[in-house]
Write a structure and sequence with these properties.
CATH class of the largest domain: Alpha Beta
Structural class: alpha+beta
CATH superfamily of the largest domain: Phosphatidylinositol 3-kinase Catalytic Subunit, Chain A, domain 1
Number of helices: 2
Number of domains: 2
Number of strands: 5
Oligomer: single chain
CATH topology of the largest domain: Ubiquitin-like (UB roll)
CATH architecture of the largest domain: Roll
Length: about 120
């Protein structure tokens, strides 16, 4: 049997959007068999994380803190939504007007309505 201590470390990237439009990335080297919780603990111990993330994901797929990480994973830390996306879309649509927004805003010259 191979010694787990002799196995090469996992190389993962942690991505966290602290503020809108700003993403921070950290490269971590964790032992084989490390979980999402281990990665969060490592980030907190090095002062990288200030607040507890609401949800976590690997490459856009939601995962729990007990999920075992694989080499090359991108661990994403999600923050809570400040605005309901449906409400924001409605407000944007109302401010732009019906003709300037939506799926059929730009039609071909001479095209039919709705196509």
């Amino acid at each position: 049997m191979a010694d787990p201590a002799a196995a090469p470390p996992l190389r993962i990237t942690v991505a966290h959007a602290c503020e809108p439009g700003q993403v921070k990335l950290w490269e971590l080297a964790l032992p084989q068999g490390a979980t999402v919780a281990d990665a969060l603990t490592h980030c907190r111990s090095h002062g990288a994380l200030v607040a507890e993330p609401v949800a976590t994901g690997i490459w856009g797929q939601l995962v729990t803190h007990a999920t075992v990480l694989q080499d090359g994973d991108r661990l994403e830390l999600y923050r809570p939504l400040t605005v309901d996306p449906k409400l924001a879309r409605r407000q944007r649509f109302a401010s732009q007007g019906a003709r300037a927004a939506g799926l059929f805003a730009r039609r071909r010259p001479g095209g039919k309505q709705g196509y």
